[in-house]
From TrEMBL:
PANTHER family to which the protein is assigned, alphabetical: SODIUM CHANNEL SUBUNIT BETA-1 AND 3, SODIUM CHANNEL SUBUNIT BETA-3
SUPFAM superfamilies assigned: Immunoglobulin
Lineage: Eukaryota, Metazoa, Chordata, Craniata, Vertebrata
UniProt keyword Zinc present: no
Location(s), subcellular: Cell membrane
The entry's keywords: Cell membrane, Disulfide bond, Glycoprotein, Immunoglobulin domain, Ion channel, Ion transport, Membrane, Signal, Sodium, Sodium channel, Sodium transport, Transmembrane, Transmembrane helix, Transport, Voltage-gated channel
Membrane topology annotation: Single-pass type I membrane protein
The protein's assembly and partners: A voltage-gated sodium (Nav) channel consists of an ion-conducting pore-forming alpha subunit functional on its own that is regulated by one or more beta subunits. Forms homodimers and homotrimers. SCN3B is non-covalently associated with alpha subunits and induces the formation of alpha subunit oligomers, including trimers. Interacts with SCN5A/Nav1.5; regulatory subunit of SCN5A/Nav1.5. Interacts with SCN7A/Nav2.1; probable regulatory subunit of SCN7A/Nav2.1. Interacts with SCN10A; regulatory subunit of SCN10A/Nav1.8.
Main location, first listed in the record: membrane
Protein name: Sodium channel regulatory subunit beta-3
Pfam families linked: V-set
Superkingdom in the source lineage: Eukaryota
Ig-like domain sequence ranges: 21-126
Sequence similarity: Belongs to the sodium channel auxiliary subunit SCN3B (TC 8.A.17) family.
Length: 219
């Protein structure tokens, strides 16, 4: 039994070690706060059989179009051959890689957000998979419309949920109070009935005792 267990444990540990982390594709936040950092989320999940792949990531930025003026997108960041490259432009020195080691998460982070950072960010991901006989490729494009605000604003859904939680707590507290009052009254009534029953029984015992005494005197 010990030898079987000794061989089984390393196998389980090896299986856990080789298992890939779970990848979940989530949308990026779109509201940034002036002067704070902002993560631009871009996730491109791979299947289990797509382990070996050459991944290239390119980020572009297009500012909001003003009336009568059209703007072109600018190449601001790229990642290839296991290294990131920050390009010249308005984001020089303010971009940082925020992706994962397996390159399923290829997000970047803006440091010290300014009002000029409002606009459309485009995440382009290309993969070249390495199989035995062929090398297929895949491509993904994600766009993020970023808005910069002076200060953080609360999420309406979160605020509504918080209000409903407090309302529910108040209702539950009131219901428990009503139940406690009801139970207290029921217990009081039961005690009164028990006392009445005890008094009646005592009185009946006294009456029977008197009758017995009367019968003895008569005899």
């Amino acid at each position: 039994y010990h030898s079987c267990l000794h061989g089984w444990i390393p196998t389980v540990i090896k299986g856990i070690h080789l298992s890939r982390p779970v990848c979940v594709d989530v949308p990026s936040e779109t509201d940034a706060v002036l002067g704070k950092s902002m993560k631009l989320t871009c996730i491109y999940c791979m299947k289990r059989d797509e382990i070996k792949a050459k991944t290239r990531v390119n980020w572009y930025f297009k500012p909001n179009e003003e009336k009568g003026n059209s703007s072109n997108k600018t190449h601001i960041y790229k990642y290839e051959i296991n290294r990131s490259v920050e390009l010249d432009g308005p984001f020089k020195g303010r971009l940082a890689w925020n992706g994962s080691q397996d390159l399923q998460d290829v997000s970047i982070q803006i440091i010290n957000v300014t009002y000029n950072d409002s606009g459309i960010y485009e995440c382009n991901v290309s993969r070249e998979f390495e199989f035995d006989f062929f090398k297929p490729s895949a491509f993904l494009v994600k766009k993020i419309q970023l808005k910069v605000k002076a200060k953080a604003t609360g999420n309406a859904a979160a605020l509504y949920s918080e209000i409903m939680m407090y309302v529910l707590l108040v209702c539950l507290t009131f219901w428990l109070l009503v139940e406690m009052v009801y139970c207290y009254r029921k217990i009081s009534q039961s005690d009164e009935q028990a006392q009445d029953t005890s008094a009646t029984a005592t009185e009946w015992v006294h009456i029977m005792s008197r009758q017995v005494n009367v019968c003895q005197i008569s005899v």
